[in-house]
Amino acid sequence: KKISDILEKSAPKPGVPADLQNLLSQHFGENRSVIEIEELKLSDSCFLPANDLTHSFSSYLKEICPKWAKLRKNHKEKKSVVMLVICSSALRSLELIKSMTAFKGDCRVLKLFAKHIKIKEQMNMLEKGVFHIGVGTPGRVKALVEQDGLCLNSTKYMILDWNWRDQKLRRMMDIPEIKKETIDLLEMSIIKLCREGSVKLGLF
C-alpha cells in the first residue's frame, strides 16, 4: 500500500512528543548500544505544547513563546537565531514565513534553504547581521552548522513543521531524505542542547 492511500483514509492526527521519540528509537535502535540510545532520549520537559491542529502558525508561536518581544529585543548575537523552524521544502519555508507575520513583530527572518540561495550568501548574512528566526530545510541548516556559519548556542526554540502534508499527503518525516537530515541535525547538537535545557522542541 502506498503511504498516500493509507493517509487518505485516516483522519489527520496531530503529532505528539512520543512520535518523535519513537522515530528516534526506531532509527537508532539497530546500530546503537543501549547506553547510546539512552543519550538520545528526550524527556517530556524538552518539548513545547504540540499543535492540536487548531492553530495557525502565528497563533501557535504566540502560545509557545509568550515572551517573544523581550527575547527578540535581547538577542544581539550574530551567526545565530533565537528560533529555528524546520520544514520539508523551500516553498513550504516561504509559506510559513508569510503566515508568521502576526507573531514576528520587528524581528528579522532568514531563509535557510538551498533553492536559489548559495550557502556562502547565508553565511555572510549571518556573520554581518542579527537575525531572530531562521526558517528552512534540515539539509541546509545542518550544512550551515557543520561549516560554522550558524551557531546554535543562542537558539531557544526549534519548531518542526510536523503535521503539514504535501500534495502526496506526505509529512516531512514521511520523506526519507528529509527524515534522515532532520534526525542527523537533531543528533548533531539539538538533542544535547534539549537535554541541557537550553532548547525546547515544538511540533507544529
From TrEMBL:
Entry GO terms, CC: 90S preribosome; nucleus
Residues in coiled coil: none
SUPFAM superfamilies tied to this protein: P-loop containing nucleoside triphosphate hydrolases (SSF52540)
InterPro entries noted in UniProt: Cms1 (IPR032704), P-loop_NTPase (IPR027417)
Superkingdom per UniProt: Eukaryota
Protein name as catalogued: CMS1 protein
Species whose genome carries this gene: Trogon melanurus
Classification lineage: Eukaryota, Metazoa, Chordata, Craniata, Vertebrata
Protein's gene: Cmss1
